[in-house]
Every structure is written in structure tokens, then in C-alpha cells.
Amino acid sequence: MIKFIDARDNLSIQVHPDNSYALKNEGQYEKTEMWYVVDCEEGAFLYYGFSRQIDKEEFRQRISENTLLEVLNKVPVQKGDVLFIEAGTIHAIGKEIVIAEIQQNSNVTYRVYDYGRKDKEGNLRDLHIEKALAVTSRIPLVKSQSMVPHLAKCDYFAVDKLNLDGRIMESLTGIVSEDSFANILVLEGKGTITCDSETVYFRKGDSLFIPADSGKFCVRGNCEALVTTIGEKASPVRVAVYMTSSEIMTGLVDMDNRCLAKRKMPVYKNEDHNTVIRKIATKILEMLEEQELRIDNYIGVGAGIPGLIGAANLI
Q1: Are 144 and 84 in contact (CB under 8 A)?
Q2: Of 111, 258, 263, 278, which residue is the catalytic one?
Q3: For site-directed labelling of 42, which of 55, 98, 144, 245 has its Cα 20 to 30 A away?
Q4: Contact (Cβ atoms closer than 8 angstroms) between residue 88 and residue 137
Q5: What pTM value is reported for the model?
Q6: Catalytic residue list contains 238
């Protein structure tokens, strides 16, 4: 998801769960994101993690006593600043800031503190304290490794800065392959983009979407923009499943077709399809943990089902 957020007031203090918690408890994926400060007033700030380590009980107490802001890391910002916010990081946008937000496609948000604001019925807005306590990293953030040449890069997205001055750097040519779309979010200026013999004019605030496998494109003008593509997964693995009427074999396979781990389990006549699928999922998670891999690392499942064993229902 790619969007602008124009914060006229302080937004709520919130946190997003990681994939494991979100999939188990919400049926959705995590929400890792990045912020680019498009514009802000003098003195503007963001909250980004904790200023010091706290334990769960202090976290809970400060929420109940409305003193949480005292231990949050308050970050003054200016135009052009970038923050990368991994799932589990407590954060909030301060007032008088315009943010370009690029995020993993998820709507799972746990609100921790909301300045005592009320909804249209006059009730305090809901907080999600127990879930926030379960997923929030309570140690100060350590400066992450450089993401150069990208502004931000993770398993879900890569974001780059496009700068054209209309003179020396007057154009940029690229290729959009079948591996990813490209989105160009225009922060300043104006210009044109040409792709597949079609030319489109753009200006500040426009969002240009180039579908995957569109081929060569060219941007011309005097502008600043963020270019977003799908991130390349670190240590990608595939899951292989082979099922017969009496047993299931499953394994993890890397991109060089090497088997990293495998499991075998029986299938009983009285087991329904949902039970079988849960058994497979449990073994896959065990293997991922054994190999010190996250669920994020897997990129697909290949299944072989010989014979007539209700394959249509299983799939």
C-alpha cells in the first residue's frame, strides 16, 4: 500500500504485529512500513520506539496512567527524513507533518494510546492493550544496517529516490520486468513518463502505476519522486508437499533445489481434510524454525497428489 498521510493533529500511538502473531490471531499478515517526510512545520516530530528499555509491567502501567509518552523516543524531523518501521516497533506521526507511507499490504493495527480522544458517540476510542503488550519490542532501536542504494528495502518492498533537475539529470530510463510492478509517487515538480508508446503528464502529488512486464519506460522533467517495487526476499525457500493415500512427505527447498529439511507423517482414514492440512502446516513451521527461517522466507508451495484422494477438496 502506498499513500500520503496529512497529519493535522497528533495521531495515535500504535504498533503492528509480526507475521507469526498476525496470521495466528488476525488471519492477516504483519505491517512493516517506511515513512518519508514530504513536508512539515518547524518543530515537528515523530515517535519511534522507546528511549530506554522497559519491561512489560512498566509498559502496562504507563498505558493505564497515561505516562507512556515519557518513555517514547521523540524524533525531530525535517523534509526528506526517512524512517523504516519494522513490525513490533511502537510509533506515531506528530501533528503538522505530511508523510509518504509505503507499507506491507495489511490493516492490522493495535492502538496503544490516543490522547483521550472520543468517537462520534462520545466514547473513548478503543485501545488494544493486551495485543500490544504481546507484540511490542520494548528495547531501544539500534541503527539498522545501510540500505544503500535504496531508501528502504525489505522482503515486501524496495523504495528508491528519483531526482531529476531538468538540465544535467533531465531523464531516467528503466525497465519494469515480470518480477515486479513499479510505482512512482511524485513529491515535487512535474514532467512526463513514456511507456509502450504512451506518454502521460504528471505533477506533484500524482501516483503513477506501471504494471509488471511493461518493459522500458522513460521519465523526463524536473521532479522528485519515490519509486516503489516489490522487495526481494532474503534466503527464499519453497515448500514441497507429496501426498499419497497413506502418508505425506513435506520439505523445504532452496532456490538451488537443495533440500534443507524434510518430514514424513502418516495419513489415517478417519482424518478430514482440514486436519491433514493443519498437520502439514505444523510440520512446515517446525522445519522453518529448525532452519532459523521466518515464515516470511517462503515464496510458494508445490504439491504432488497422485491418485484419487480428494485432491480437489484438499487444494
Answers
A1: yes
A2: 111
A3: 144
A4: yes
A5: 0.81
A6: no
